[in-house]
Structures are given as structure tokens and as C-alpha cells.
Amino acid sequence: MKIKILLADDHQIVLKGISFFLSTQPDFEIVGEAHNGQEAVELTAQLQPDIVLMDLNMPIMDGIEASALIAEQHPNVKVLVLTSFSDRSHIVPALQTGAIGYMLKEVDPDQLVEAIRSAFKGNIQLHPDISNALLSQLIPQQSEPKKLPRGEAIESLTPRELEVLEQLTKGHSNKEIAQELVVAEKTVKTHVSSILSKLNFTDRTQAALFAVHLFQPTE
């Protein structure tokens, strides 16, 4: 039996990347994609997925409100939050809606796969940084808090590497990036390799998913 998954995210590149990767898993079936919270609620009613992979910052209805409605109307459907927000002001309300877990978009794809499988079995799933954030509220700090993962690595990227990284979030190939930035395709390949090395990612999809929030306009 396959795990039926509904994806909810308003960023098309994120949806494309996650859908492509999860579709490679033999026990997963992507049954639908929602671009806002309201669509997530409506498609949950229509498709009855096992898991809703829910972003929080979406138009019309945000992920927290959508998660609460799904939990109320479809208690057998498990909501697993997948977002770029790691602050307690988002974590706590999301978990209070009844979401079974809270993962960050920078999560390793293989870890996300295992989190979905475990959530399907009814196990609570928390990204390691989220666990640390929650524990920090309970345990007195004995030392300086750790910096955000890969924060220093982002700062080490050159201006050109940042330009290439932004192109990756748009789903562009090396050839397309070379044309856009007016550089040789070989040069783009070198920049991509450097970016993956500095950010400690194994492929460009991971880097793109992680970097999406860096280039989103703040509201």
C-alpha cells in the first residue's frame, strides 16, 4: 500500500522539486498539489490523503489555519509541516493545531522521506533544529546559542555564486544560467560545485529548496 501525499506550497519551484523527489519513492504516491491553504483543505476533502505536507506562509489561508481545519474535519489525515520558519512563534501554533510534525525545508531529502514514513505510522516528527529550539525554552542556556545551520556558509558565497544560487531556485539548467548571466556554461558548473560544497549539499535541488526563502521578498 502506498502512502498518499498531498503537497501544499505556494512556491512552484518548491512543489516541483519536492514532488519530483518524493515520486521516486516506491511507497509514495503524490495525489495532489495545493497552492494555498484553502486549496489544501478542499483537496484534502476530495482526495483523502494519508499525509499533507504543509507550508505555513501561503496566500488566502495560511498553513496554520489550514492545518487546524484539516485536523478538525479529517482526523485521520496527518499534517506534516514543511517550512522555512524556525522560530517558536510559528512552531508552537503549528503543533497546537494537531500537526504530527514540523520539518524545515533545509532538511536532507532522505530525512524528509523517513519523516513522512514515520509520520504515516503515527510518530511525531521534529527537525533537529526544531527540537533544539523547543528544548531551549525549557533548559537554561549555559552557552552561546548555535548559529542557524549553514548561516556562515551563505555569508561565504561570492556575489556571483549568489546570482547562480538564485537562478537555481528558478529551476534553470546550467546552460540557461550561463545565458542569463552571460558566462560560459563551464563557469556555471564550477560555481554550482562550489555552492554545493560550501552549503554541504549533494545536489542542486537541495540547494534550491534551502535557498528559496533567501530570495523571497519580505512582506
UniProtKB/TrEMBL annotation:
It comes from Cohnella abietis. Residues 4-120 form the Response regulatory domain. SUPFAM superfamilies: C-terminal effector domain of the bipartite response regulators (SSF46894), CheY-like (SSF52172). Gene3D superfamilies: 3.40.50.2300. The modification 4-aspartylphosphate is found at residue 55. One of its GO terms (biological process) is phosphorelay signal transduction system. One of its GO terms (molecular function) is DNA binding. Pfam families: GerE, Response_reg. This is DNA-binding response regulator. Residues 150-215 form the HTH luxR-type domain. Keywords: DNA-binding, Phosphoprotein, Transcription, Transcription regulation.
